[in-house]
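Entry for the shared binder. Reason: the reviewer on the internal report wants the predicted structure included alongside the sequence.
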Amino acid sequence: MLDVRRLRLLRELAQRGTIAAVAEALAYTPSAVSQQLAALEREAGVPLLERTGRSVTLTPAALRLAEHAEAILAVLEQASAELATARTELTGTLRIGAFPTAVRTMLSPALVALSREHPRLELLVSELDPVSAPAALRAESLDIALVQEYDYVPAAPETGLDTEPFLEETVYLAAPSPAPLATHRDSPWIASTHGTLCHLMTVRACEAAGFAPRIRHHADDFGTVLALVAAGQGVALVPELGALHIPEGVALVPLPTRRRTRLAYRRGTGAHPAIAAARAALHTACAAIPAAGVSPGGDAR
């Protein structure tokens, strides 16, 4: 009989590529991961790993077994969710991951509703960039999270997760005065930290307009970004959630670019009462968000 915990390690290795990455994600030591995978190889009775120096490659049999592991883990999650529906009260821990603007605008009211309706449910929140959320869900350090993609930064397919539509936003050009994006070829730019989705979106949107942005400042909080624009330090691209409160001296010009946010959770957990309650609370909070404070002409209200 194949050990489920070892199958999970194999699935993670197929996703992450290195034993060191698996160990870091799941709080193991690399030697412990290697030992468990060697034990799985003995259970399977066929070679699963090809070792070249300090690196490993999954054999065709291992890749196929990793696919089965996805299905097995999803069925186990579904079984756990069905058992949870028999309880009369929600208890335990629910780990939620969200990006900063969502924490302020949607997650806070959703947490209030969840705490009021399910007082014995312990809620743990992690603020993180959406690019990190899928791996955290698969590693079971999160139970539900917000993931994103932009028109210029499409999301890669994620195995082992289910997602559902949540929010679609307009992306705005924030500048001292309304003007097309292409006119800011020589302007200084304000962008998020390198490696985040927002940073990559800014770079690719400018490249689509025919230039590479000259990034002067980096800031991940859109309130800070808009304050820098108001101080004459540059221009920036800001999604609608980050543009709900506009400082004086900032104009917003809507662009055809969109940001799409989805709710994500491990496959098989969608019907779990705690996940279902969080989904409902988040959708209710999302529906209550006002539109960005910008008039059709592009001026901040």
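Summary line for the report: The two ends are 65 Å apart (CA to CA).
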